[in-house]
Amino acid sequence: MNLEKLVRPNIWKLKPYSSARSEFKGEASVFLDANENPYNYPYNRYPDPLQWNLKEKIAKIKQVRPTQIMLGNGSDEPIDLIFRIFCEPQKDNVVAIDPTYGMYEVCAGINNVEYRKVFLNDDFSLNAEKLLKATDDNTKVIFLCSPNNPTGNLLNRDEMLKVVTQFSKIVIIDEAYVDFSSERSWLTELNNYPNLIVLQTFSKAWGLASVRCGLAFASEEIITFFNKVKYPYNINLLTQEFVSKQLDKEPEKNRWVKTILKERSRLQSELENLSMVKKIYPSDANSLLVRVDNANETYQYLVDKGVIVRNRNSVSLCLNCLRITIGSPEENTVLLNELKSLK
Ligand code: PMP
Questions:
Q1: Ligand 1 — pocket residues by CB below 6 A?
Q2: One pLDDT digit (tens) per residue for the chain, 343 residues
C-alpha cells in the first residue's frame, strides 16, 4: 500500500499547527510559552495534545502500541477525519454497507464526497464480492461495521477478510459494539494489514457516552495523519484524566456487559412470545432489531407510555423494524409490560 497515493495531496504536504506544548520536550518549572494564565492550576494549562498518559493505559488494555491510537471526541471525530484525510471532495468516493451507522453518510455529505451504498443480504450478511464490485479507481475507503448498527449482527469474518485483503486502499472496521460480541476484535490484525483502521468507543460497554471519547487504531503512519488534521487539543484535560480513572473499572465494565447480554437473551425470548413480533434478528450488540406488525404505530404507542425505542421503519431493509437498546432489567421489564398490554 502506497499511503502517498491515498492521502489527499494537500494533507500529505500539510505542515500542521505546532502548539507551544508540542514543541517543548523535557522538564521545566516556568511555563511562559503558551499565553496561558498563571492562575487556576491545573485548568489554566493546555492539555497534552497527544494524550500520552491515557494512550499508554489504553495501549496496555488493547495490546497495541500507544502510537497506533488516535483519540477523538467520540468515534464520530475519526469518522469525519477519515474523509478529510483521504477523500478529495467531488472526486473520490467511499463504499459502505447498507444499512449501517448513519454518520458515515452524513460525514460524506459534509465533506462533499460520493457515498456508495451496497445492500447487505436480506439476513444482513455481507457479500464481499458485491461490495468490491461497487468500488472503482476513485474509491478511497470502504466502511464495514461489525457488529453492525442498527441490525446488531456480526459480519462474517471471512467475507470481511476478503474486503481487507482484496481492496488495496483504506478499510474501516467500526467495532463500537465489539464488547457485546462473541467474536474477537480485529485489533489483533492491525500489524498484518496496513490499510486497516479499527474504530472503537467508550460510549457503549464502558458507559461513557456523555464523556465523548472514541478511538481509532491504525498503523503508526496513518495515525500521524489523524494527528496532523485533528484540532490540537481535541481531548480536554478533564476527559483525559477521567477516562484514565474509568479504565480502572474494567471488571465493573465486564459485569455490566454480562448483565446486558443476559438481558438481551431474556428480552429476545419474551419478545418472541408476542404476536405483534414478526422477527427478531440475531444480535451481537447491545440492541435487538425487531420486526413488528406496524413499527410506526408501536413506536408511537411506546412514546405515549414514556418508553423510547428507535424507529428504523424508513431505513433500508428495515421495514417495520424497531431497534431496541438493552436497558437495565427494570427498564426492559417496563418495555415488555407495555408491549404485553398492547397485545
Ligand atoms: N459507530 C457506531 C456503529 C455507532 O453506533 C456509534 C454511535 N451510536 C458510533 C460509532 C459513534 O459513537 P461515539 O461518537 O459516541 O463514539
A1: 74-76, 101, 145, 149, 174, 176, 201, 203, 209, 214
A2: 899 999 999 999 999 998 887 888 788 899 999 999 999 999 999 999 999 999 999 999 999 999 999 999 999 999 999 999 999 999 999 999 999 999 999 999 999 999 999 999 999 999 999 999 999 999 999 999 999 999 999 999 999 999 999 999 999 999 999 999 999 999 999 999 999 999 999 999 999 999 999 999 999 999 999 999 999 999 999 999 999 999 999 999 999 999 999 999 999 999 999 999 999 999 999 999 999 999 999 999 999 999 999 999 999 999 999 999 999 999 999 999 999 998 6
State the alpha helices, DSSP H only, in 72-127: 76-86, 103-110
Distance 145 CA to ligand 1 centre (A): 10
Strand segments (E) across 137-195: 139-145, 170-174
Going from the Cα of 161 to the center of ligand 1, the distance in angstroms, rounded, reads: 22
Contact 143, 108 (CB under 8 A): no
Closest atom of ligand 1 to CA, residue 75: 16
Cα 203 to ligand 1 centroid, rounded to whole Å? 7
Q: Hey, which of 107, 149, 283, 284 would you mutate to test ligand 1's pocket, going by the most ligand atoms within 8 Å of its Cβ?
A: 149
* Distance (Å, whole) CA 291 – CA 337: 18
Cα–Cα distance, 320 to 298 (Å, whole number): 9
Report the nearest atom of ligand 1 relative to the CA of 203: 15
- Residue 9: cis peptide before it, omega within 30 degrees of 0: no
Closest atom of ligand 1 to 76 CA is 14
